[in-house]
């Protein structure tokens, strides 16, 4: 069981995929890519079939497809993978590279500090703003009481 | 006899140039950027993605520009493009109960946990053309975000056992219409895949027919929610699930009166609609048609067009429909010659058999 307060690998991979590609590129800019990089699987765009559930809770049905770009890279002893929605190859490459580097104990600490944490905060802020913008259009009903 | 006719290559080449010029329009006007289309025509982008059956805003924007705004042509372009991409796999089922809601309304209950949230809707506009320049609008932010997760309205009725429950059961592998042909009778999962990529206009008309009496339908919009949902995949290389991003979805839970039958007690039954992007009209239409197509399962009289799955599912796809309708423009010279000579023979026989001259017989009804 992961008792650390930090994000585990599935969470950081999710975060890298959910982040704005420009934010990720800016954050990764400070980190020189390792010298011994091997692109095991260059970024490739393909499709996943989205699945829904009947009524939201029932049996599955095939809903329609989505473009996804995947990429795998080896840095030292570590292999980084990425699957990101859309066809932005740079996003997939940076996410795979960050995934490989985050598996390295030496690099993990500065990466968590300068990449993962700022991206997490940016994502939280974007979601909070979207939710509060929607909340501003919440209906307040007024009931007119007639008679006494 | 089959006669091959060649020709027209040069005319076709000139026509394509003419089309390219017409598509671009006045070159003194800057060309639309894909970002402009994506940001300012987002509802059109959503429709092209949904019926093109491919969630990718950039490709849908490109298709809209290339098709000069003809949505059905853009949908066709997107469908054709998807066949060039490899299929990586299937996502885990989208969890719409965890949706980060931006709009959520119910036509059945006023006071619902989480509230009625209007979000960005045209419902309360006056539908008056606004001739002024669109001023940059800044939406106000509330002090607190919405409830997360937003509870489902239908769970309120579920507590009283007055609404049908939809459980995954053995969670069977659904038919995939991109790989298998449509066969009848089609189960509900197959029907929903067909309806999801079906033409909005066709489904809207079908849904409207159920409300006007062509099926036993007494629907209420139990809940409509729109917002962002995480897309989760579990690649073999990893062996664990990860989010790959989020997409905007609109979900409609329609509830319909049901007097009981087929061993089921009287209860509310449900129709389901799901749509990419902000597509409320499509999601509601889909939910109404989904419910109408359940007539056999619920032992309801099956007489209306919207209840006939062969009729609905065979004619819902705009790519197929527009291809078949528009193929009539292609040369049918030989077929038509055959029909013409047959008709001349019949007309001559008719004239020989009857006393009246042919022309006055044909024109007789008009006088």
UniProtKB/TrEMBL annotation, chain A:
Q: Which gene encodes it?
A: phnG
NCBIfam families given for it?
PhnG_redo
GO MF, one term, reads: lyase activity
Which source organism? Answer: Dyella flava
From which lineage does this chain's organism come? Bacteria, Pseudomonadati, Pseudomonadota, Gammaproteobacteria, Lysobacterales
Q: Superkingdom, according to UniProt?
A: Bacteria
InterPro entries the record matches: Phosphonate_metab_PhnG
The protein depicted here goes by the name Phosphonate C-P lyase system protein PhnG
Sorted alphabetically, which keywords does the UniProt record give? Answer: Lyase
- Keyword hit for Lyase: yes
TrEMBL record, chain B:
Q: Provide a Gene Ontology MF annotation, just one.
A: lyase activity
Q: Which InterPro entries match?
A: PhnI
What keyword terms does UniProt attach to this protein? Lyase
Q: Which domain of life is it from?
A: Bacteria
- Pfam families assigned: PhnI
Q: What is this protein called?
A: Carbon-phosphorus lyase complex subunit PhnI
Q: Which organism is it from?
A: Dyella flava
